[in-house]
Predict the structure of Acyl-CoA dehydrogenase.
Amino acid sequence: MDFSFNSEQRDFRAALRQLVDKEIIPVANEWERTGRYPTEIVDRLREMGLFGITTPEEFGGLELDMVSFTLVYEELARGWMGIAGILGSHNLSCWMISRHGTDEQKAQWLPRLASGECRTGIGLTEPGAGTDLQGITTTATKDGDDYVIRGTKTWITNARHANVLPVLVKTDPTASPAHKGMSILLVDTTTPGFEVQRDMGKLGYKGTESCEIFLDEVRVPQSTLLGGVEGRGMQQALSGLEIGRLNIAGRSVGIAQASYDAALNYSRERTAFGKPISDFQAIQLKLADIATQLQAARLMTYWAAAKADSGARVDGEAGMAKYFASETAISASLEAMRIHGGYGYSTEFNVERYYRDAPLMSIGEGTNDIMRTVIAKALVSGSVTVG
């Protein structure tokens, strides 16, 4: 067994760390407090080709292996989790288009998405349907050679910057089971009737917008049907969410790493009763717990990513990684706050931001309760074995 990166992965991580340490961490707190959109950082992500990490090379993308894919989100979230979110939804959408799109759809969108000239996200969640995607009410009715879309989507990352948005709809609301009547349409966001109504207020996950979108009689041509065949939308969405869970696991590791680094450094600098608090056993035990859980989460994430690189389905493995790593991010950020004492509650220190960002990791790409059912089904079916 080899637990080390290859030379390309090491060089790639070094480039990412340089970006994060020099250009993201120094501005993250101030830009978050002022609500400043990270335009300059987005430009640097574009220059590095990071908008094309899931896009095939033939369309101008990097087409990274899945271990390198998770490294992107780990390193960016270590600096500012919202920046990782900008890339997360974009590259999930690109992955879906590259795997499921028609030749025409790929040629139309992927080169411009990979370069960052165009941006995207993914329109799944609705005010009344998040975990239960089969419960969506957004419909697309056939009218000649067009579809007419009616409905609302919410919590849409990149909504104000997306040029195209894959939108999950019901093309046959009467289908049973419901997923057989679900499709994805690639909606040009300049289409009349497509309206970004409002930005959602959030505890954390700042830097990128999360919006509610209203689709009022949005008319799109039949050529926007992802893959060109109705009834495959649910499978297409779930395949994207499978790799999206590796993204969330990577982000969780990044938050936990940042929390650990902050706690360790502060414990060495802060003195009490004449010595650094890192000399006290109570603090040492907290550091040991954070470090152990962090390293376990990291190895589980890389294990799942390496399995994905083999070409196998990774429902269970990605679910395990996302579940464990996100819970680790939550516990690590809380313990880091406790080690900081009163300063951990201050906006002058980074740990309060990690604490606000971490809970979303237990929700995004499927709640952790859903992850446990996904894992259990994988165990019972035998697609994942333990021991």
